[in-house]
Design a protein that fits this description.
The chain is built from 11 helices and no strands. The protein is mainly alpha-helical.
Length: about 260
């Protein structure tokens, strides 16, 4: 991914990945056993446990049992550390096996989209950071390159690739972020996701303006089939993803380019 400029000659976006930093040389008073990998891992654990709003370098230092200055020996800013953390969780995403020439690009795209959903649900704080940083760390770049190679195998025109990938991954981002917020709200209230959905249905059941919505939910029948709320959401995600991929497939088949409306 090429770094964009803001119109001033030589000006680059701020990123830990674009900053040359001299190798760390431990001073005598630096804690033994501390390194950047341990700092990043502790950052991810804290963000998972307490969220982005409560995260601070002081809190991280206390978790590591060191001073805040010891952490700054390895990173220049808090933002640099957050950028490292969001790339670290990107490394959890499973990439499709590209060694098989006969592999179906649709299946590979599902693997990538599902992996992206899973890290957004596992690490809800990552959604905001993915929107704030340019995400050019090694793990993020490996994921991005994998999506491009999969789309290249689809046969879609190259000038349509960016829009096709946006349709998939913007959908995944929105779906997963909203679900993660619902789950966080449930945890804060000490209730399950099933109880939350049950409370919403009960609150709306005697309101006529919501009759059509409730009828559709009843016809979907996730409770009747014994599915949980998570089962329902997973099923909806899978179907919506299939619709996205089917749309790309239809555009790919149209060799004359996007269909136009009359």
């Amino acid at each position: 991914m090429a770094a964009a400029t803001d119109g001033r000659a030589g000006k680059r976006p701020r990123s830990v990945w674009l900053t040359e930093r001299p190798p760390v040389k431990r001073k005598a008073d630096q804690p033994a056993g501390l390194d950047l990998d341990k700092i990043v891992a502790a950052t991810v654990r804290l963000l998972d446990a307490e969220g982005l709003a409560k995260f601070s370098m002081r809190r991280l230092a206390a978790e590591l049992g060191v001073t805040a200055m010891s952490v700054y020996w390895y990173v220049d800013t808090k933002d640099d550390l957050l950028e490292l953390a969001v790339d670290a969780v990107a490394g959890e995403m499973t990439l499709p096996d590209e060694s098989e020439d006969t592999a179906d690009w649709r299946d590979q795209l599902r693997v990538l989209a599902t992996a992206y959903r899973d890290i957004l649900l596992r690490h809800p704080w990552a959604a905001r950071l993915l929107g704030e940083f340019i995400n050019i760390g090694p793990h993020s770049t490996a994921f991005s390159n994998a999506t491009l190679r999969v789309m290249a195998r689809s046969g879609l025109d190259p000038d349509q690739t960016s829009g096709a990938l946006a349709s998939i991954f913007h959908f995944v981002y929105g779906f997963s972020t909203i679900r993660a917020l619902h789950e966080a709200r449930c945890r804060a209230a000490g209730i399950s996701l099933d109880d939350y959905f049950g409370q919403v249905v009960a609150a709306l059941s005697d309101r006529p303006e919501f009759a059509e919505t409730l009828e559709l939910s009843a016809r979907a029948g996730y409770a009747r089939r014994g599915d949980s709320a998570r089962d329902m959401l997973d099923r909806d995600f899978g179907f919506a993803l299939d619709l996205q991929i089917a749309g790309i497939d239809a555009m790919r088949a149209d060799r004359d380019g996007p269909r136009t409306r009359d």
